[in-house]
Structure formats: C-alpha cells, structure tokens
Design brief:
Layout: H1 4-18, H2 38-46, E1 87-91, E2 96-100, E3 103-106, E4 117-122, E5 131-135, E6 141-146, E7 159-166, E8 172-179, E9 188-193, E10 198-201, E11 215-218, E12 224-231, E13 240-245, E14 250-253, E15 267-270, E16 276-283, E17 286-291, E18 296-301, E19 307-313, E20 322-325, E21 338-343, E22 348-352, E23 363-366, H3 370-374, E24 377-380, E25 390-395, E26 398-401, E27 404-407, E28 413-420, E29 429-434, E30 439-442, E31 455-456, E32 464-468, E33 481-485, E34 490-493, E35 507-510, E36 516-523, E37 532-537, E38 542-545, E39 557-560, E40 566-569
Antiparallel strand pairs: 1-2, 1-20, 2-3, 4-5, 5-6, 6-7, 8-9, 9-10, 10-11, 12-13, 13-14, 14-15, 16-17, 17-18, 18-19, 21-22, 21-40, 22-23, 24-25, 25-26, 26-27, 28-29, 29-30, 30-31, 32-33, 33-34, 34-35, 36-37, 37-38, 38-39
Length: 570
C-alpha cells in the first residue's frame, strides 16, 4: 500500500531520535535539527477512510445508458469482474484504494511506489485481469496487473510487480486513456504536452511493451483544464472525449476511428461544470463530477454525446478524502499538502489540506520552545520522491531538509523557496535570493539529499517582500513562482520547464495583497490540480484563494480566525 508520507515522517522521527530530540526542547542548534515527530506518522498510519461502495452500478444490474463491455468499448477498471467500471483513487495521505459495488480495499504496488496518477487500461495482455499504468512524481510509467481473484472477498487487491514502460512522462501534464481508438479491442493512451499537443500511444497487447511509439494527433488542447476519456459515448464504436475549459464549458469530442485524427469537431454540452473539482469517466460513456464537498454525481449518456441530469452517487461528502481519482480529467497534483505554523512562543503545529477548501484541525508537533520561535522554518514542495512537501531550516549557514544535512553556505540568502520542478525533469528544485537581490536556481537530485551547483537567474528580486509557490498557477502543468511587492502587487513568473531559463516574463495577478501579514502556498486545496493560496491578515483571519487559472484566483473566502498567534505560517 502506498505510504510515502509515513515513510518520510518516520525517517524524520528517526533523525530526531538519533539527535536526542522527541518533543524535547533542544539546548542549541548543535543538539538537534527540528523534524516532525512520530505524531504525524502515527496519525497517517491510523487513519481509516470512510467505507463506501459504488451504488451506480450495482453488480449484475445495468444502469441507464451503460452496457457491459464489448469489443469496441473495453472496460478500463472492472476490478471485481461484474462487467462495470470501478474506481481507484489516491487519498490525501498518499494511499490508493479501489471502490467497487462489493466495497473498498487498499490498492497498492509491491514496491510501494507513490502514484501521482493512475491510468486504468483494461485487459491488455490477455490474462483476464485489468491492468493499470502508474505515473510517478518523477515521470516514470509502469504497468501493473491487478492481483485480485475475481469473486474473492477482496474488493480490490494489490498489484503485481509491473512492466516498466518508460521515463520522461513528466513532459505531459495529463496522461489518460480515451478507450479504444483504433478498433482492435484494446484501450489506448493519450498524453497532453504542456504546450497543448496530444500524442496517441496505441495498446499493443504485449505485456513487456504495452504501448506503441507516439503519434501526434492534435494541438491547441491547452485551453482545457480537464480532459476525460470516456470510451464510446455515442454508440458508434469509437473512443470519445469530454473537455472542460476554464470558464466551465463542457465539450464533447466524438471519436472517428482514424488513428492520426481520432476526434472530430466538438459539440458544446453546456456551462456550469466548474462546479466540479474533478470530472471522472464513469464507464460506458458516463461522467462523474466530484463537488467541492466531496460528493460524486453521476451523468448517464443519452447516446448522442449529451448527458442526462445528474444523480448523486453514494453518500454526500464521502469522497472528500480523494485527492486524485483515476480516470479524472485534472492535471494531477503532488508536492505540497499543508501548512506549518509556529507561534510566537515556539509551539509548532501542522495543518493538513483536506481537498474541500479548508484545513484540517491542527496537530501539535512540539511544545513551546524559544529555539523554534527564533528559527526560521520554511516549507518546500517535494524535493525527494515521496510526493509530499518537505521542511527546511538554515542553521549556522547549513541547510537541512527534513532533518537531512544538505550543505553549508546557505546563510547568504534572505529567502529560499521550493515551488516544485522548475527544470522539467520531474524533480523538485529550489530558488534562493541573496541579500543583494540576485535569484539563484538549485536543481534537485530527486532524492532530497543534494542539489546541483547554483545558476544565476538575475538581479532585482529585492523588489519583492515575499516569494512563494507550490506548483502550477497558469494551467499548463508547469511550476510557477509568485512574487509580492512591498506595495502589495502580486506577480506570477510562469514556468518554462527549461533549466537555462525557467521563467517567462512576469504577469500581474492583482493588487492589494499587502493586506496579508502571512501569505503562503499550501498546494492544492480543492483537488482540482491547481495551486491555491492562503492569507492571514493582522486580525488573524485566514482567507483562501482558489486558483482558477490562468494566473487568476477566485474571490477570497474566510475559512478561519485566531491565526494571529503564528509568526510563521508557511
């Protein structure tokens, strides 16, 4: 079962114990490097997801507009053999679960790989078991086979060790299966580049090499923030797509059966689809929408690409723990998962993201400690391969990340930010501003143990009193950087994924951001794949800003009070 966060926190605990620190107050910087103690690991291991089943479909019964699989519309994720699609999701702790009409179960790989996204591709190799592609944070793609025996008490099952498909898949901001494009009865795979091109990979039926070489099949798809492959939605035997733009308009792209031009001109389905943080394929051309509160709604196909009215799927809010549902149209997000908060007396707390636009109740990390009050803690997006945010300190010029000593010479910097992968290799990087205003790039090694030699990105960065970021703010899947001036103007520096020039020219996001004493990038707060922001004003009120992209935020929403007790909220 996937447990990256537990492994990371356990490692931090071990480091703390070896240094003689377990909620004890260190006497000096030489005594201990502050790390998150075992409380978080225990909380992660002890969590129990809300039980659920798929009420639509129920085993052995058809639902409106959905038929069992046939040669031209293969099922992608029938995990219990009942002839209907099932769901797999990654929760906020990094675990995977399967959900069928029989119930839910852990769904993980033998090698404990952290899944950025899961792409079910049906039965490719002819052994009657569904297979899934697992995309890692660093861009590797591996095909696994469901190890569950149909008809057993286990509703999901762990995955057999898989066949390596390839590296470099971080070049795409979305990888998904539309179903069977070329009519051979096997599901195919599409990757969308960060510049909006679509590339098609045909299924081969060969387990050792499940995908063919890529074929360019379209461009201009960057205008959509969600793309969902739904199989055959109009009954003509070809794989179809739904795509949503940032205004919330949904479009239907019928399949053609022609490999190099697989989709014809779109039909507008209607607006209002930005109500949903994730739009998910539901099987047989149906669509599921995940609302902000974690409720799923089911839309049955009418057979012509349009959809029937929605029906609630299961209990209200039960999917609030789902950070990424397989077959969802979102750009998957990993990297940051909450906020560190340190009070004026040095008490250290942690707030998790919840995917519902709010933070979880705080967890105590350590008690009052003058050492922590004076020490500047900063949070960075994942710089190792576990997919979760990391904690940084500079002590006597030495940089530590999650208790790991990185090296000396970091005392020259007035700001250090870890927004994510800036160089396009799938590994988390850092930028650091020196006291003369020069910004430097440090390319990460993907293990969280070191960085390449620094590269200058130019001067003038002292114009900003805050640098921050955690992922994508422009809707292309590339990591961006945000910068606030002393006058309160907030700018975005769009990422390029190019190590030699990681940012495009800045664009103004808006003014008035100096209202906030604390401004932080917690990652994705509503499971839509976009980086969001949190601000704390002088009265201690906490406000949320959802990113609606490109480089725009929804109106602020107050989600808490009493945050004036923190002098560090990052």
């Amino acid at each position: 079962m996937f447990s990256g966060r537990g492994r990371r926190v356990a490692a931090c605990t071990a480091l703390a114990l070896s240094a003689g620190m377990l909620l004890a107050t260190p006497a000096s910087a030489d005594d201990a490097v502050p790390t998150k103690p075992r409380a978080l690991a225990e909380r992660q291991e002890a969590h129990k997801p809300a039980p659920r089943t798929l009420t639509l479909p129920q085993a052995g019964t058809a639902r409106a507009g959905v038929q069992a699989a046939d040669a031209t519309s293969p099922l992608l994720a029938d995990l219990n053999g009942d002839g209907f699609e099932d769901l797999v999701y990654r929760d906020t702790f990094g675990f995977l679960y399967s959900v069928t009409a029989d119930g839910m179960a852990p769904f993980g790989t033998a090698d404990d790989t952290i899944a950025k996204d899961v792409i079910p591709i049906g039965n490719q190799s002819g052994d009657e078991r569904p297979e899934v592609l697992v995309l890692s944070e660093t861009g590797s793609l591996v095909m696994y086979v469901d190890n569950n025996e149909f008809g057993s008490e286990d509703a999901g099952g762990n995955l057999r060790p898989g066949n390596f498909v390839g590296n470099g898949w971080q070049t795409y901001n979305k990888v998904f299966s539309p179903g069977d494009v070329d009519g051979d009865g096997r599901a195919d795979v599409i990757g969308r580049t960060k510049t909006g091109q679509l590339y098609l990979y045909l299924g081969t039926g060969v387990a050792e090499k499940p995908l063919s070489g890529r074929i360019l099949v379209g461009s201009g798809w960057g205008k959509f923030d969600q793309i969902v492959g739904v199989g055959d939605a109009n009954g003509d035997g070809h794989a179809d797509l739904y795509a949503r733009d940032t205004a919330g308009q949904l479009f239907f792209y019928p399949g053609t059966g022609v490999v190099d031009q697989p989709f014809s001109r779109p039909t507008s389905i209607g607006g209002g689809w930005n109500t949903y943080s994730q739009i998910v394929a539901g099987g047989g051309g149906s669509v599921l929408g995940r609302s902000l509160d974690g409720t799923l709604y089911y839309y049955a196909p009418k057979g012509d690409g349009t959809l029937n009215g929605r029906v609630q799927e299961g209990d209200k809010g039960v999917w609030s723990d789902a950070a990424q549902i397989a077959n969802a149209g979102t750009i998957p997000y990993l990297g940051r998962h909450g906020v560190n908060a340190v009070t004026t007396n040095g008490s250290w707390y942690w707030y998790d993201n919840t995917t519902t636009g709010k933070l979880s109740p705080r967890v105590a990390i350590s008690g009052a400690d003058p050492y922590m009050a004076d020490l500047h803690l900063f949070s960075v997006s994942s710089v190792n391969n576990d997919g979760f945010g990391d904690d940084g300190f500079v002590i006597d010029g030495t940089l530590y990340i999650d208790g790991e000593e990185i090296g000396g010479g970091w005392g020259v910097y007035s700001a250090i930010v870890g927004p994510g992968d800036l160089t396009g290799d799938g590994k988390g990087d850092l930028v650091a501003r020196d006291r003369s205003g020069v910004l430097w790039l440090y390319k990460g090694n993907g293990l969280g143990t070191g960085f390449a030699g620094r590269v200058s990105l130019g001067g003038g960065w002292n114009a900003f009193n805050k640098l921050l970021g955690a992922g994508d703010y422009t809707g292309d899947g590339l990591t961006d950087l945000l910068a606030r001036t002393t006058g309160g103007d907030l700018y975005v520096y769009p990422g390029t994924g190019n190590a030699s020039a990681p940012f495009r020219p800045r664009a103004l996001v808006g003014s008035g951001w100096n209202t906030f004493k604390q401004l932080t990038a917690p990652g994705d707060l509503n499971a839509d794949g976009k980086g969001d922001l949190l601000g704390v004003n002088s009265a201690g009120e906490l406000y949320r800003y959802f990113n609606t992209s490109p480089a725009r935020f929804a109106p602020k929403a107050k989600i808490g009070t009493g945050y004036q007790v923190y002098n560090n909220f990052s």
